[in-house]
Specification:
ABC transporter transmembrane region fold; 10 strands; 6-stranded mixed β-sheet; alpha/beta; 4-stranded antiparallel β-sheet; elongated; 9% strand; 23 helices
């Protein structure tokens, strides 16, 4: 276990206020009412002394007994009223609203944070933050606060009251509380470690579970279900290991604390008995103190468990805060809009956070408006990174990216993305109707506009054949449709958006010949009168491009038209010749397999 310092209750209180942003006044009011409630409860317990002294007095006075009983009742009633008012935060829906607001804040952050930062999280990790971390940070703040204040306030009030009855007994109670402090610190060290580690382990487990389930079709196809479950099993075992260590580490302090309470009970009984024998204390006073202690023993014994929940909250909130503190891209003033849709890279270099090696190095290029520009090169050469930088996936570490002679840092994100449509190689469709998936390109589009875009994308025919037509749900990630069908829906979405810049990330590389023909026809409709950038794998498909950029090891090696690049007999030529040889090999060997 590490030696990380545990946070104080004041730290936990500040975390609570930060979590409850917008509802801080309700939290403060709730905690204030809890303090008043348990102060009155402590006073009610303290008045057991005069009540029992009156009951056990030699000359019993009913009026005095009723007076003290009524006093205790009134104090208990006032305590109940304030406790009810304090708990209003939980029962009124404010707690649920706080949870909702926090998830909305996280959702807004995810929508606006740099994509590079977003992609540094695994899907399961984000699920864990939005689900379990939010719950652990918020849902405990009301109930646990009440339990904490009961343990903290009531004993203090009773000790103060006992000083007026018998200072020695009060001092005994005070010493017991002082002795509990090192036990508390010992316990918090263990629970803080356990809560932090279990939060990390559960996050990893959730991510591994999502990854395993999503990959099951592939694992079954290669008969590796058991072998590739090893990482998942490792994550499960890690959770069990940490839970065992945590339970062991927290159980010992709990046993010691319970032993301390029993020792305190016996000590008070022994000291009280001696005082009674000396005539310095009445049986009623000792009885009252024992009654009070027995009432407090359970919440006091649970004090360590209550304190550990603060560590659970802190561990969950640490992940939330890390996400909330992620800075969005600054839009540098003056905010501008591009006047045309030429695209230029000026001495751009870039590398990812996890890799010190430059992905792009001193790239300078110009893409003319309403032209078709192809980007080619080996895998990992930086082709996709160029298109990501145009969409401001991240800022270059050097140089600038401009659209219409305006640095994209001066363009608001909504304006930037309004001007760019993207058709990815791996199409993502939401588990919704085909109509709604296409309409995402233009949320206020009419049904007729959606159908027109679908026709232009050569998707209307196959959609019309489906049992529910455009109201057909596509399944998770569009799983109920073929690759070509998903691509055409994606293209229909882009056609409906009608952005002046279109980025195509190898949209036909994984399709069969028939699907490729249909998708290519849809693409021809999409790119009319647009500034088009296409990442190409098959060089024969981009031979008609206005300009071809050859990227290798993050550098621009060559650029020009197909004929010019072939005549140079450089990198492009060698790639083109290699693909031609593969074609000839396929033709010559057709039917031999």
């Amino acid at each position: 276990m590490n030696k990380e310092k545990h946070s104080s209750f004041w730290d936990s209180y500040k975390i609570t206020l930060e979590v409850a942003k917008g509802k801080e006044h309700l939290i403060k009011k709730s905690y204030f009412y809890f303090i008043i409630s348990f102060a009155f409860q402590g006073l009610a317990f303290a008045f057991f002394y005069p009540l029992l002294n009156t009951i056990f007095a030699d000359n019993f006075n009913l009026n005095d007994a009723l007076f003290w009983f009524a006093t205790i009742t009134i104090l208990s009633l006032v305590s109940f009223i304030f406790k009810w008012k304090a708990s209003h935060f939980n029962y009124s829906g404010d707690l649920v609203e706080t949870t909702h607001n926090l998830r909305v804040r996280l959702g807004e952050k995810i929508k606006t944070m740099p994509l590079q930062k977003l992609y540094s999280y695994r899907t399961g990790e984000l699920n864990s933050i939005l689900a379990s971390d939010v719950d652990s940070s918020v849902l405990h703040m009301g109930i646990i606060a009440g339990m904490f204040f009961e343990v903290a306030v009531v004993p203090i009030v009773i000790i103060v009251a006992t000083f007026f009855i018998d200072p020695i007994l009060a001092l005994t109670l005070l010493i017991a509380i002082i002795l509990s402090i090192p036990i508390y610190k010992w316990s918090r060290k263990g629970t803080k470690w356990e809560k932090n580690e279990i939060a990390k382990a559960n996050s990893t487990l959730e991510a591994d579970t999502v990854e395993y389930i999503q990959g099951l079709p592939v694992l079954r196809a290669v008969n590796q279900i058991g072998k590739n479950a090893q990482q998942l099993q490792k994550s499960i075992s890690n959770v069990r290991k940490i839970q065992k260590q945590g339970l062991f580490g927290s159980s010992i302090p709990m046993v010691v604390m319970n032993t301390l309470i029993e020792f305190l009970f016996l000590t008070i009984l022994v000291i009280g008995t001696l005082f009674i024998l000396k005539g310095e204390l009445t049986v009623a006073t000792l009885l009252a103190l024992l009654v009070i202690l027995s009432r407090l023993s359970e919440p006091f014994a649970n004090f360590l468990a209550v304190a550990s929940v603060f560590d659970t909250m802190e561990a969950g909130f640490r992940n939330i805060k890390k996400l909330l503190d992620t800075k969005e891209f600054e839009v540098i003033k003056p905010i501008q809009k591009p006047k045309n849709f030429n695209i230029s890279f000026n001495d751009v270099s870039f590398n990812y956070d996890s890799n010190n090696q430059k992905v792009l190095e001193n790239i300078s290029l110009n893409i003319k408006e309403n032209s078709l520009t192809a980007i080619v090169g080996p895998s990992g050469s930086g082709k996709t990174t160029i298109t990501k930088l145009i969409m401001r996936y991240d800022n270059p570490i050097k140089g600038s990216v401009k659209i219409g002679d305006v640095d994209i840092k001066n363009i608001e994100p909504q304006t930037l993305m309004k001007n760019i449509s993207v058709v990815f190689q791996d199409v993502y469709l939401f588990d919704d109707t085909i109509l709604n998936n296409i309409r995402m390109g233009k949320p206020n589009a009419s049904d007729e506009e959606v159908l027109e875009a679908s026709r232009k994308a050569y998707a209307h025919e196959f959609i019309s054949r489906l049992p529910k037509g455009y109201e057909t749900k596509v399944g998770e990630i569009g799983g109920s449709l073929s690759g070509g069908e998903r691509q055409r829906i994606s293209i229909a979405r882009a056609i409906l958006k009608d952005s002046p810049i279109v980025i195509l990330d190898e949209p036909t590389s994984a399709l069969d010949t028939q699907s490729e023909v249909a998708v290519q026809s849809a693409l021809d409709e999409l790119i009319k009168d647009k500034t088009v950038i296409v990442i190409a794998h098959r060089l024969s498909t981009i031979s008609h491009a206005n300009n071809i950029l050859v990227i290798e090891n993050g550098k621009l090696k060559e650029q020009g038209r197909h004929e010019n690049l072939v005549s140079l007999k450089g990198k492009y030529y060698s790639m083109f010749e290699a693909q031609q040889r593969v074609k000839e090999w396929n033709i010559n060997n057709k039917g031999t397999l």
